Structures are given as structure tokens and as C-alpha cells.
Amino acid sequence: MKNGTTPKWLEQYEPGVAAHLEYPKLTLGQVLHETSRKYPDHTAFIYLDQKWTYREFNALVSKMANVLIELGLNPGDTAGIYLPNSPQFLIAYYGILRSGGIAVPINPMLSGEDLAFIIKDAQLKVIVAPVEAVQLMEQAKTPKLKIISTALTGQLDPASNPAAPGALSLEELLTNAADTDPQVPIDHTAIANLQYTGGTTGRSKGAVLTHFNLLANAIQFREWFKNVYTDGDGRFLGVIPFFHIYGLTTTINSPILTGSSIILHSRFDINEIMQSINKYKPNLFMGVPAMYAAIAMRDNQGYDLSSIRACVSGSSPLPPAVQKRFEEVTGGKLVEGYGLSECSPVVTVTPIYGTIKPGSIGVPISDTQVKIVDPQTGEEITTSGEIGELLVKGPQVMQGYWNNPEETALVLTEDGWLHTGDLVYMDDDGYIYIADRLKDMIIMGGEKIYPRELEDFFYTHPAVKEVAVTGIPHPLRGEVPKAFVVLKEGAAVTEKELRQYCLDHLSKFKVPKIQIIDALPRNAVGKVLRRLLREEGL
């Protein structure tokens, strides 16, 4: 928005949701102390039917901090977490922060060069991993890296995880550690987290996020739910991966800020999730479209899902049919949001009880400035409906990329605006719509083609379950669009018939090549791996 004008999206805020917030000068470890003081006997998390209170959790975090200090982790050193959702992840993460270290969550499905790169690039001193992955850690480790192994059994009993060759037992270390806060002086502006981007379009980069960045985004996110739940009453279904910043902020930091319970699941198993909702009555659930679709399209077999009050869908577009059916099944609200690792991650969310516009990613949350600029000229676009690159500014925006000033300079301006690389447009009410990724835009003989536009069109065909469109090189036109289509079960449409459907409804130059495949390649949080599709297209 132009300086001096009131952002039009503020009119969409629900009653009581503030446009501007206060952010205490606290570290995340101090926030946990405060929560455990207010809610000592509230359940902090549940895993495999075992429960831990905030008093117990806080003591375990102090134990972990003391363990790391004893192992030589100094303030500003980095420590990796190579774990699925589990009590050990929570204890390790907050223990690293309380010790003054920098946490580096790592996708536990990474291996080989991908894993070795992060270990080396982040300069890890310690890594916490499942006992089954110790050999993998040994292969990828650097000479001074210490490996702490853990058994993900739901128990923190040393008997469940004796020390493995080449590693220390987390359970043994915690048992023998003091549970008093080591009182390491940590500034609220210190680095808390290196969040490595997915690396699907090149080598991954570590987004530098401070305690202030992460706490600010947790406070912003909590404010959005002001009319949904009260502090101490939240019960979050914790199945979105915690190694991803989406899960880290929405389903760890925000619940801990409010004294809420986290119902942990190390994976999305539809039967386990249905049983968990029925038993533990979560009222908040942050996930991805595939999770909501699985619940919406499944016979609930008598499970009571009515505890669900509000959910946010992220990482990929939410089909309106899934949104509608999920709300019918649970009685709760399901809205779409948008974020990125560089923004801790939340930038926009649809108002929970406000106007829902299918296809929109909502409006900017509190204290979040956005503007849309022409990718070629950098001039701000103020016309509704005109596509440009989204820029973001706010307390949640990263400090830069770890040891990568060149890449940082490409995305962060001197006055704090972050180039997201996403092509968007805004309507007259301030709602934002993703048109495409700037790097995914296809330029065919000078014509701009947006894959998102073509994907939305394919979903109008009754036989199409999923689709992803990407550009593939062409000797004369530079590149041409190609659609990879997954059909609904039992559908018998052919590629030729789909092409004719396109010819009947689209401008001819937009009609893509079409290939029917069994499934789209995705990462752990549901994003389509377009790089793999481009390679397949070649």
C-alpha cells in the first residue's frame, strides 16, 4: 500500500483482532518458563498415550540445556534435530534454545549429500537423531560433531535406549542432568533457528530467525485465533511436521505461548488421527490439504470429530470441495493461509469467522505490511487484480540467509522488504490470491503463462484428482507448458480427451502437453516437487 493510506485488508479483521500488537523482549526459553509458572499442571503434550505437564516439560528442557552445555555447546553454536514429531523433538528444541544455542531442524527423510550439506553448512556441533539413524549420522558427520541418539518409544527411560556405538544416549544424559535453568544470558534478538529451505530448485539455504522473529509470529498467529479459544484451553493436533517452520510456529511455539496441549503424532495415519481426535478432543489442527481431504472423504465410522473448532491449511492450494466437506464433517472452520520459511512463516490467513473467498490465501496478519510490485520495474502495483511479485515486511521477517550474503541481497532490501518470489494479485477487499511462483512462470515465445491458472482449469474436469503444470524447454518457443495429471479412481479419460477439453475452453497458446501419471511427487509437507516433474518432462 502507498505510504499514508490505511490498508484495506484491515476492514476484514474480526472484532477484537488487533492490527498492532505488543511483543515482549523474551526468549522462547523464557516464554516456556512463564507458561510453566502459569499452567504448571496443564498437559503440555501427549505421545503414545503418555502425558507430560508443563512443569515436567520445563524441567526436561533445563536438563537438556545442561546436557548440551556439558558437551561443549556454547552460545551461538548450532545443534541439529533430525527427528519426527515426538517429545524428544520438543525437549531438544527448547533445550538448545535455553542453552544459548541455535536450533537447526532437519527433515528426518534427508540422507546422503542433502543431509551432509546441512550438517556442514550449518556447522553443527551436536545432532539429536533416532537410534536407527546413528549409522547414517556417522556417514554424514563432520569430525567434531557429537551424536545424541534416542529411542522414540514414548518413554524417556534409559533402559529403552542404551548408548549405541558412536553416539550418546539422550535418555541416559537426561536422567543424570540437573533440572535447574543454567541461566545462560541470551538476548531476545539472538539467533534461535536456522530454517533450511526445501532446496527443490537448487541448494538449500538456512533462513536466520531470531527469538524475536519466532515469538512475534507466534503472537501474531495466536491473535488471529482470539475468537476461537482462550489461553490454557487450546488442544492442538500435532501432526504437521515440526522440522518444517509451519509446524514449528503454529503447533509448537504458539501452543506453548498459550499453555495449550499438543497431541503428538510422528506421522499422518488416518486411522490413528481419527482415533486421536475422538479420544483427546483437539480443537485446533494446522495441516495441509491432503490431511483435510483424507478426513473429509473418509467414513468417520462413529468417531466424534466435533471438538474441532478451527484449522488452517497451508503449503498448497486448498480445493473448495475439501474445505466444504471437512467443515460439514467436523462442524469446525477450515481456512487457508500463506507463509514461507523466511517469514517464520505466517504472512496471511483468512479470518476464521470472516469472509471466505475460495482460492484466496486471506489477508495479512497483524503488523504485516505487504506490497505488490512489477517484477520487471519494481514499481508498486495499486490496481486490484493486477499480478505482481509479493513483498513482505514485518517483525517475523528473517535476518538473512546463513553465511550467504549474496543470496540475502537478492531477496532482502536495505529497508527490510522481503521479495517472496510469489506472483499474486489483491482484490478490492484486500484478499490476496497466488497467481504463481515467479520462477515457475512460463514464458513461451514472449507470452506469459501461469501454471496456477492452468491447474485451476484442469480441476474443473470431473475426472481430474490432482494436477501440476510446469514449463519444459522447447527449441523454438523457449519453453512450453506441460500438465502432469492424476486421475480419480475409476476415471477412464485419455490424454487426447483432456487435450480436447483444453482446446474447447482455453486460448490455443495456453493448451499444454499432457501426461497422465499415478501420483505427483511431493515433499514432507505436501508441496509438489516441480523440479522432478520438469526432469520427467525432459
Automatic annotation (TrEMBL):
Ranges where the AMP-dependent synthetase/ligase domain occurs: 33-402
Span of domain AMP-binding enzyme C-terminal: 453-527
GO molecular function (one): acid-thiol ligase activity
Keywords for the protein's UniProt record, in alphabetical order: Ligase
Record PROSITE patterns: AMP_BINDING (PS00455)
Ligase keyword on record: yes
Pfam families listed in its UniProt record: AMP-binding (PF00501), AMP-binding_C (PF13193)
NCBIfam families: PRK06187.1
Family: Belongs to the ATP-dependent AMP-binding enzyme family.
Protein name: Long-chain fatty acid--CoA ligase
Taxonomic placement: Bacteria, Bacillati, Bacillota, Capillibacterium
